[in-house]
Amino acid sequence: MMLTMLYEGKAKKVFATNNPQEVIIYFKDDATAFNGEKKDVFFDKGRVNLAFTRYFFELLHSHNIKTHIVSFIDDVSLKAQKVNIIPLEVVVRNYAAGSICRRLGFQKGLEFTPPLCEFYLKDDSLGDPILCREHIRYMNIIEEKELTEIEQTALSINKALFEHMDSFGVTLADFKLEFGKTTEGEIILADEISPDTCRFWIKGTMESLDKDVYREEKGDLISSYKKLANILGIKL
Ligand code: TMP
User: Fold this and answer.
1) What average pLDDT does the chain have?
2) Distance (Å) from CA 176 to ligand 1 centroid
3) Long-range pairs for 139-147: beta carbons < 8 A, 24 or more residues apart
4) What is the sign of the dihedral through the CA atoms of 87, 179, 234 and 71?
5) CA of 63 to the centre of ligand 1 (A)
6) Which of 22, 31, 211, 218 is deepest in the core (most CB within 10 A)?
7) Ligand 1 pocket by C-beta < 6 Å: which residues?
8) How many angstroms is it from 18 CA to the middle of ligand 1?
9) Is the pTM here over 0.90, yes or no?
10) pLDDT, tens digit, for every residue of 143-177?
């Protein structure tokens, strides 16, 4: 059967299904960084990231967070509810790293209590710029109360993930979420949660078990992801 591809992103492909309300999301082995400037292929990355996404989304389901997941199809693809992706990258930061250090001069590892929630415009041609609430209002992306709902959900997700990872001796420094709107207008968590979209540090250190290994060329990416899976007891 030939599947119709609806969209190809940097790390995933989205295909139509017979059900107009559902899509298949395929996890590619591609890795990119710095808005696609750096690009490579890592054998097995798609399978490993899908296993993490399954693990984290199931954890969030147990915390009553609604997500787009319908079912897991195989090692590299899942079935999801078709949603209109809200063009915002929602980043929660517990510790300073990455762009916030480059942009604002924060020292890496500075703790944010309470955690920071930021919004970036999902637009590669503009380089995913950071937005304030007023920008979002004038862009008519979503309503003010929807933005507040997204922020609160992102912070609840942060609490659940942070405490879970901490119990395994791993610090969740920061992560990125994407949300989508269903045909009924409900906002649910979409996309993925994996070491591609989070910064995970071995507790008490800033040793990365995430895509910073690739961004900063600190070692073998897949070995780091597999080390994290092993710590969490994820069977690969
Ligand atoms: P940043 O420090 O580059 O702003 O990234 C913050 C977090 O968001 C980090 O965990 C990586 C994640 N992220 C993505 O998942 N996709 C992206 O396109 C970017 C820029 C960051």
Assistant:
1) 97
2) 6
3) 141/86, 141/87, 141/88, 142/86, 142/88, 146/187, 147/119
4) negative
5) 24
6) 211
7) 91, 97-100, 128, 174-176, 197-199
8) 33
9) yes
10) 999 999 999 999 999 999 999 999 999 999 999 99
